[in-house]
Amino acid sequence: MSTRAALVAAAERLFAEQGVGAVSLRTVMQAAETNVAAIHYHFGSKEGLLDAVLRGRLDQIVGERDAVLRDLADGEVTTHDLARAFVQPVVAVLDAGGEHWVRLVGQLLARGDGAGLGTLAGSFLRRNAAFVELLERCRPGVPARVLNFRLTQAMNVTLTVLGDVERTRLLQGPDAGTPEEVVADLVEVVTSILAGPPPDRRGRRGSVGRQPASTG
């Protein structure tokens, strides 16, 4: 393994286990059995190292999703197809030993403090257009803003659940399914997010928190 790859692997694990803010460059250097100068040489800063960690597996996810979207573009597409296209590439990262990466991204999305979010948002937005186009075919007439919101929530749910499958199973209690069943259930949840409410409820948007006017 090259020095650069060793640093990325060590940072990925440490950031996921301890949180980005709690990990020093010296800790990463010690885990990778290299020196701080190597971190500055390859990445320039801690932010540069985090960016490299995130982009490494994003490339795999993007590649797999692109392939799925190309297959879907020429035929009939459903929201369930798109949900699988959202979830399965992340599962593939898990299967390839990327559990620390998925957990890290889930933590960054949940915390929302800005660290690494620019990298994630940039990659997500570049892929949004293809998803929105296919979603528009499934849900004609729904504004692009709404479809983008649904995609964002699909990303949040997917990374949160897959970032810690055992936590999800623990929350379910004694009736928790197997990890494979959790993934299948996640696809169904993402399908419902992408599909949105049934037609007879769409006219009620914007009514949250409003109370009917008093007639007395």
TrEMBL record:
Keyword Transcription among UniProt keywords: yes
PROSITE patterns (alphabetical): HTH_TETR_2
Name this protein carries in UniProt: TetR family transcriptional regulator
The organism of origin for this protein: Actinophytocola oryzae
Keywords of this entry: DNA-binding, Transcription, Transcription regulation
Residue ranges of the region described as Disordered: 195-216
Residue ranges of domain HTH tetR-type in the record: 1-61
InterPro entries in alphabetical order: Homeodomain-like_sf, HTH-type_TetR-like_transc_reg, HTH_TetR, PsrA_TetR_C, Tet_transcr_reg_TetR-rel_C_sf
Residue ranges of the annotated DNA-binding region, renumbered to this chain: 24-43
Secretion signal span: none
Pfam families: TetR_C_30 (PF17939), TetR_N (PF00440)
Top-level taxon: Bacteria
GO MF term list: DNA-binding transcription factor activity; transcription cis-regulatory region binding
High-level lineage: Bacteria, Bacillati, Actinomycetota, Actinomycetes, Pseudonocardiales
